[in-house]
Amino acid sequence: MVELKTEESIDAMREAGRVVARALDAVRGAAGVGVSLLDLDGVAHEVLRGAGADSPFLGYRPRFAPVPFPAVVCASVNDAIVHGIPGAYRLRDGDLVSIDCGALLNGWAGDAAVSFTVGRPRPADLRLIEAAERALAAGIAAARPGNRIGDIAHAIGAVGRAAGYGIPDGFGGHGIGRRMHEDPGVPNEGPPGRGMKLRPGMVLAIEPMLIAGGTDDYTADADGWTLRTVDGSRAAHAEHTVAITADGPRILTAL
Ligand code: MG
Ligand code: MG
Fold first, then answer.
1. 20 to 30 Å CA-CA from 117: which of 76, 91, 98, 230?
2. What is the pLDDT of residues 51-65, one digit of tens each?
3. Is 190 inside any structural domain?
């Protein structure tokens, strides 16, 4: 079931989204060669705590997971696509990092992700990240009343495929509201004009994931969480929480 949010609810979700944006900004600012992923998790946790927000990630345990997620961010480095558990790994020169973060504030959730490089970037990584951001922007632009879920999926997939990148099958965005994951699912590829009609009051987390090697294959680490490319190529992830309004898409997780 899809819950339509009132304008007041969307304003409240904007506040949760602002906390996510601030946490991601702080993590990005703290990231550097030699900094551990655990340190970055601590930076995000501090922002959440300071805002009086809880983490929808910490302790989250979907059906596929062998253990509850132990952190407030997912930190996915290089060939990790999403859901990386932040551990003792220290960032190295040229790493590509994707950070996904959520917040729960006054009963409402926000969810967003950014990808960036550390130290001297590889030009191919910058192209990959730029394409993920462009795919996200295209998906957001399609998130307007009268369009359908498939129009968002198609917009994302078209950008990724045109750039020659792979798109992990079966992972994508989702409705979001009082809980982080709500209906409907938002695929990252698919035919336009299909699926649920978009209406004002729907709030969606839109989140393209792109694989540099061009294959769609992924595998899960022994930790049961981290998804990794099979070809060893790098991956990038970008995400915003977006409200569909009569005036068009409203990004709730921008700074
Ligand atoms: Mg996320
Ligand atoms: Mg999400």
1. 230
2. 999 999 999 998 889
3. yes
Q: How far does residue 50's CA lie from ligand 1's centre (Å)?
A: 20
Judge if pTM exceeds 0.85. yes
Closest ligand to residue 173's CA: 2
Considering its fold, how many domains does the chain have in total?
1
Ligand nearest to the CA of 206: 2
CA of 100 to the centre of ligand 1 (A): 5
Around ion ligand 1, which residues have CB less than 5 A away? Answer: 100, 111, 113, 239
Q: Which two tokens stand for residue 120?
A: 């001297």
Q: Ligand 1 center to residue 112 CA distance, Å?
A: 5
**How far, in Å, from the CA of 87 to the mean position of ligand 1?**
18
From ligand 2's centre to the CA of 186, what distance in Å? 10
The answer to whether residue 1 is domain-embedded is no
2 within a domain of the structure (yes/no)? no
pLDDT digit string, tens, across residues 93-111: 999 999 999 999 999 999 9
Closest ligand (CA of 57): 1
The confidence score (pLDDT) of residue 1 equals: 84
- Distance from the CA of 181 to the center of ligand 1, in angstroms? 10
> What's the domain range around 192?
7-251
Residue 100 lies in a domain: yes
Q: What is the CATH number of the domain that holds 205?
A: 3.90.230.10
In tens, the pLDDT along 159-183 reads 999 999 999 998 999 999 999 999 9
